[in-house]
UniProtKB/TrEMBL annotation:
One of its GO terms (cellular component) is membrane. Keywords: ATP-binding, Kinase, Metal-binding, Nucleotide-binding, Repeat, Signal, Transferase, Zinc. Residues 1-16 form the signal peptide. Belongs to the eukaryotic diacylglycerol kinase family. It is an enzyme of class 2 (transferase). Residues 189-327 form the DAGKc domain. It comes from the Eukaryota. This is Diacylglycerol kinase.
Length: 519
């Protein structure tokens, strides 16, 4: 009897140990891959572009034509699209060969293309003439192509590209799709691949064109649309790459998309976190400005130029802050707490009200604008509107601010702003403005400290935008607590909402790995 008891105890211990190992093992996500055997990835040629159809050789103008954003094959009609899918191979994402050969596509060469062999202009003849490799982007004349080596070296961006012969796929019977199973390291010095993520359905809807441009230059599997796959799926690349390889993630989007990716990186707990760069497509883009990647791009961004800029970027650390909201007890019942993370800034009051009004307008089904400049004009309109209405007047009467545990006396104000980075409000650097800016403590987004200041009105915001005023500085600190006694607009990194009364605490969470480009 005692032997049976001991046996059962041993079995339970083994099961407990297995359960502990399973719970400690990092959860891996499925990284889906497109089956290129099913055809090309077609997109519209665009209203101002032309191309020659690779099937019937007819000139396609504007929206009449379609182009594969991966390999560059063009088609003029639905019949030609079907024929191209059957007869012209698309840019493969995986092969089983030891080396990779050129993938030549006939005609439709870029402007000012030069032959890789004779260095003369090519693609200048009318119609489908000469050839371009959709991997290394080299162009050659019809008469020179036999003088080119069969093996492709992937061109100037070989350090960024994951070669097809380094990717192993598997078929998931459950999900009925191809998944990336393994990624091998190529024989390339200083290989540090980049993963492109963006959401074609967000913001000004420019990410779709940008993602297509990157598929043209890189392995299409390296380009992830967040409208189709989650950030966790995209970041599975970092688990699949060899441990010593540095993975870089380029986020094509605004501050909201960047924060989404940062949150996913934090949840996945990488041993070696990827380095994040930004290709700004949003409206504010304050973090992108600080990291040296500019104030914003349009859909016709030159991705080749951007990849050249990325080569000059250096790694850095960015503080991330936990924003914890504790609601008051209601009839003796405490509602659930809420936590978000801040990268750029937090504000309560008129600054957040303008953002909230703009956000509500953009969420309306009747809002038809997607251009960045029009969005900025609408944003300015809401700021002007509040100059007259002053909905956040006397905010100091319903808000208490504690910096490093000490309550701060507040002036007559309509907003309080807490900064992690130097820029705010689409490029304004408020902390260094005015006479007080010369003696203000230095800002650093990796020093574990926050800058806190007040705004007297929405007109005060307008003055800061043009450099005619300075903020009401409260100082620097490592922790901030806001006690809100009444409802007020609030925003974190441009994401606004109407905040109910309660206690809001900001504490340092961790540091994210970013890339900074010196301008």
């Amino acid at each position: 009897m005692s032997f049976l008891i001991l046996a059962w105890i041993a079995v339970l211990l083994v099961l407990a140990l297995l359960l502990i190992k399973l719970t400690q093992r990092p959860y891996h996500h499925d990284l889906r891959a497109r089956d290129v055997l099913k055809g090309h990835r077609w997109c519209s040629l665009g209203s101002s572009n032309t191309c020659f159809c690779n099937i019937c050789e007819t000139l396609a103008i504007g929206t009449e034509g379609m182009v594969c954003d991966s390999c560059g094959v063009c088609a003029e009609s639905q019949q030609c699209i079907s024929a191209a899918d059957r007869t012209l191979q698309c840019k493969v994402i995986t092969t089983k060969t030891a080396t990779h050969k050129h993938h030549w596509v006939r005609g439709n060469l870029p402007e000012n293309a030069q032959c890789e062999v004779c260095e003369e202009d090519c693609g200048v003849e009318s119609g489908l003439s000469d050839w371009r490799c959709c991997w290394c982007q080299h162009c050659v004349h019809q008469n020179c192509i036999l003088n080119v080596a069969e093996v492709c070296d992937f061109g100037r961006f070989r350090n960024y590209i994951v070669p097809p012969n380094c990717i192993r796929l598997k078929f998931s019977r459950i999900r009925r799709t191809l998944l990336v199973k393994e990624v091998l390291e190529p024989n390339v010095n200083s290989w540090s691949p980049i993963i492109i993520v963006g959401n074609r359905k967000s913001g000004s809807l420019e990410a779709d064109t940008v993602l297509s441009s990157f598929r043209h230059v890189l392995n299409p599997a390296q380009v992830i649309d967040l409208a189709e796959q989650s950030p966790q799926e995209a970041l599975e690349w970092c688990h699949l790459l060899p441990p010593h390889v540095t993975c870089r993630v380029v986020v094509a989007g605004g501050d909201g998309t960047v924060g989404w990716v940062f949150n996913a990186i934090q949840k996945m707990s990488f041993e070696k976190a990827p380095q994040v760069a930004i290709l700004p497509l949003g409206t504010g883009n304050d973090l992108s400005r600080v990291l040296g990647f500019g104030e914003g791009h349009s859909c016709d961004v030159d991705v080749v130029e951007y990849l050249d800029q990325l080569a000059t970027a250096s790694p850095a650390k960015l503080d991330r802050w936990k924003v914890h909201y504790d609601p008051p007890r209601n009839l003796g019942i405490r509602m659930p707490a809420k936590e978000v993370y801040m990268n750029n800034y937090l504000s309560v009051g008129v600054d957040a009200l303008v953002t909230l009004n703009f956000h509500r307008a953009r969420q309306s089904p009747f809002y038809i604008f997607s251009h960045r400049q029009i969005n900025k004009l609408v944003y300015f309109t809401y700021g002007t509107k509040d100059v007259l209405e002053r909905e956040c007047n006397a905010l100091e009467e319903r808000l208490e601010v504690y910096m490093d545990g000490v309550q701060v006396e507040l002036p007559n104000m309509e907003a309080v702003v807490i900064l992690n980075i130097p820029t705010w409000g689409a490029g304004v650097r408020p902390w260094t403005l005015g006479a007080g800016g010369a003696t203000a403590p230095k800002q650093d987004f990796s020093d574990g400290r926050l800058e806190v200041f007040c705004l007297s009105s929405s007109f005060h915001i307008a003055q800061l935008q043009v450099g005619l005023s300075e903020p009401i500085r409260l100082g620097q600190c490592s922790t901030v607590k806001l006690c809100l006694k009444g409802a007020a607009p609030m925003q974190v990194d441009g994401e606004p909402w109407e905040q109910n009364p309660g206690t809001i605490t900001l504490t340092h969470s961790h540091q994210a790995s970013v890339l900074v480009r010196q301008q």
